[in-house]
Design goal:
225 residues; 2 domains; alpha+beta; 11 strands; 4-stranded antiparallel sheet; 7-stranded antiparallel sheet; Umud Fragment, subunit A
Length: 225
């Protein structure tokens, strides 16, 4: 069976076009569904985050752990906008601070917090003792002296925040899944111009196909007698 010139090029062009579009759309959809970039405003998270710093949130509140920097909304705290804080205790933990202590205590043990600004874990001296209920977390800012956090809402579930209020957990920009999405998008973008080139080549090949000779209608054929 004889194939038309450029047929294989045309098939490859279609395959690459579909693959390129699929990779691009899939990568973008995955990034949107799993990650959210956020610009931080204020100084409540110094020295970890400064005003204008950008962070990447992974939308997976079910996996909130101690030490995680999280983005959260809280209607109870009158925070309909996205705020940022650090989880220092999760459900079942007992977190406490007594004015004058050098550190917070977590489940009866001193809590090491190298991320706190100036080492002032208890600034500005607000005492508290909280057993974190199920499905909730205790959130503080790294700049304890200038952070409105769980310590200021003791009348609302002991100042704890519902895990469902957590919009996402901060992850490094070089997160493996994020990099995979980026590579997939790059490969997809590369496939599109290649598909275009193959499509043009296929069209040119078809145009160069020689036209088969056919009978000349109306011609008179003379036979020798």
């Amino acid at each position: 069976m004889e194939h038309r010139p450029g047929r294989k090029l045309g098939i490859w062009a279609i395959v690459l076009l579909i693959s390129g579009v699929t990779l691009n759309v899939g990568a973008v959809a995955l990034q949107i569904s799993r990650f959210e970039p956020l610009y931080f405003a204020g100084d409540s998270m110094l020295p970890t985050l400064g005003d204008g710093d950008e962070l990447l949130l992974r939308k997976d509140p079910a996996q909130v752990r101690r030490g995680d920097v999280v983005g959260y909304h809280s209607v109870a705290w009158q925070r309909p906008y996205l705020s940022v804080g650090r989880v220092v205790a999760v459900e079942g933990d007992h977190i406490a601070y007594a004015k004058g202590d050098a550190t917070l205590t977590l489940n009866g043990q001193p809590l090491d917090e190298p991320y706190v600004l100036g080492g002032g874990a208890g600034d500005p001296g607000l005492s508290f003792a909280v057993s974190v209920p199920k499905g909730r977390v205790f959130v503080l800012g790294d700049n304890r002296g200038n952070s409105e956090d769980s310590r200021y809402f003791p009348e609302l579930q002991y100042g704890t925040l519902a895990v469902s209020d957590v919009a996402g957990v901060s992850v490094p920009w070089e997160n493996t899944l994020m990099l995979t999405c980026g590579v997939a998008s790059w490969v997809g973008s590369l496939a599109l111009p290649v598909a275009l080139g193959l499509g043009i080549a296929a069209r040119v090949a078809r145009r160069k196909q020689p036209v088969p000779a056919g009978p000349v209608w109306g011609a008179v054929h003379l036979e020798d007698s």
